[in-house]
Design goal:
The chain is built from three helices and two strands, in the order ααββα. It is α+β, with helices and mostly antiparallel strands and about 80 residues long. The protein has one domain. It has a two-stranded antiparallel ribbon. The longest helix is centred in the first third of the chain and has 9 residues. The mean pLDDT is about 90.
Length: about 80
């Protein structure tokens, strides 16, 4: 968890990064990778102000992800 905190601070993220060492969140959200259990699927979940998942991106391309998220969020 210290690594996540340092990473978030380094890049000035205004949010906390999730750490999921037992993979319980990945399993709950359908991002568990059965073929390579040491890695979660590269999915993006957009959580709204009420704490509910509003959007899920399951076909994530790191080169275009930021642009797609900004378009979705109207930024």
């Amino acid at each position: 968890m210290e690594d996540n905190r340092a990473f978030a601070e380094k890049f000035d993220f205004p949010f906390v990064l999730l750490s999921d060492p037992d993979r319980s969140m990945a399993k709950a959200f359908g991002a568990y990778n059965e073929e390579r259990p040491e890695y979660a699927q590269r999915y993006t979940y957009v959580v709204g102000p009420e704490g509910k998942v509003e959007h899920v991106f399951t076909d994530v391309n790191p080169k275009t992800e930021a642009k797609e998220l900004l378009e979705l969020l109207g930024s």
